[in-house]
Amino acid sequence: MSSLNDVARRAGVSIATVSRVINKGSNVNEETRAKVLKAIKELKYQPSRVAKRLRSKSASSNLIGLLIPDIQNPFYVDVLRGVEDVAYENNYAIIMCNFAQDEKKEKMYLDILQQESIDGLIAAPAHEKDPNVIKLLNDGLPIVCVDRGLTGKDVDVVVVNNRDGAYVAVDHLIKSGYKRIAYISGQKQIPSSKYREMGYRDAIEDNGMQVDVELIKYGDSKHRSGVELCEELLAMANPPDAIFTGNNLITLGALETIHKRELRIPEEVAIVGFDDMMWSISLNPPLSAVRQPAYEIGKRACELLIQRISDPKRSPIQMTLNTKLILRKSC
C-alpha cells in the first residue's frame, strides 16, 4: 500500500504539500496540485481516514466496525448481539464484516471500514500477529480484540479461559473412565485452538496418562472438518473412545460421522464440545459442552471500546471470562 511519502516523492514535493492537497488547502498552486493528484492516481494512494480523524478530534461517525471470522458459527452471532445491544444504548451503529478466516478478504473489509470513518473496531483477528489489524492499531484507531489477542501489542482484549475450559472437559472424560480421548479443532494458529489443546494436554498428563499426538487433529473450524477428521479418528486400528471438539461446527460434523457409523453415544464413543449452543439440548443424545458467555463477551468488548474512544490514553485491559461445563447425555 502506498504511503504519503511515496506520493510526495513521485510528485517531487514535500509531505506537507501532499497533505494540503488532500485536505483541499487553498495555498497550493494549480500546477503543483495537478502533480500531486496525478501521483495519487498512479500510486492508487488512499488517504487514511484514521489519520484524518486524529487531526479532527471533534469528528465522529457514531459507527463501530465488527470484524468476525465466521458468521456461520453461532458463537459469533451471540457476540454480535452483545455488541449491538451496548452500541445501540450508546447511540452507535454497527458495521459487521465476516472475513471467513481469509486475510485478503479481511484486508478489503478493513479498508472499507477505514473509508467509512468508523470510531472504533471490535475484531477477532485472523491470528496473534494479524498485520491488517495491527496496522490500524498503530494508526491510532481504538480497537478491542475478542476471542483472540495480538502478541506484544497494548490492546484491550476480551477472551474466555480456554485452557481451563478444555481442562475441565477432558478431566471429566478421564474421571468417567475414558482412556483414548481425541481432540479435533480448527486452525492451529488461532490462539483459542492452541490454548484448548494446552488444556487437553494438561488434563491428560495430570491424570498420569500419555498424550498420543495421533489423536490430535486440526482442520479449518468448519463442519466439513469435523466430518472428515472424525472419520480419520474412527477409522484408526485403535480408535478413540471419546472426542473433545474445539467448536460447535466441528462438533456437528463429528456427530454426523458418528451417526453415519451407527455408533452409540456415549457407550461406544463419548463426545464433549467447546461451545454450548441453544440447540445442544435437542441433539441425539443431548450434548455435554463447555459453555462460554458469548453474549457477555460482546457486551464487555463494546463497553471497553466506548471507554477507549472517549479515553484513548487509558491503560489496556485484558478481561478473561470463565467457562462452565454443562453435563448432559453424550459422555
UniProtKB/TrEMBL annotation:
Keywords: DNA-binding, Repressor, Transcription, Transcription regulation. It comes from Plebeiibacterium sediminum. Pfam families: LacI, Peripla_BP_1. Gene3D superfamilies: 3.40.50.2300, lambda repressor-like DNA-binding domains (1.10.260.40). It comes from the Bacteria. Residues 2-56 form the HTH lacI-type domain. One of its GO terms (molecular function) is transcription cis-regulatory region binding. CDD domains: HTH_LacI, PBP1_LacI_sugar_binding-like. InterPro entries: HTH_LacI, Lambda_DNA-bd_dom_sf, Peripla_BP/Lac1_sug-bd_dom, Peripla_BP_I. This is LacI family transcriptional regulator.
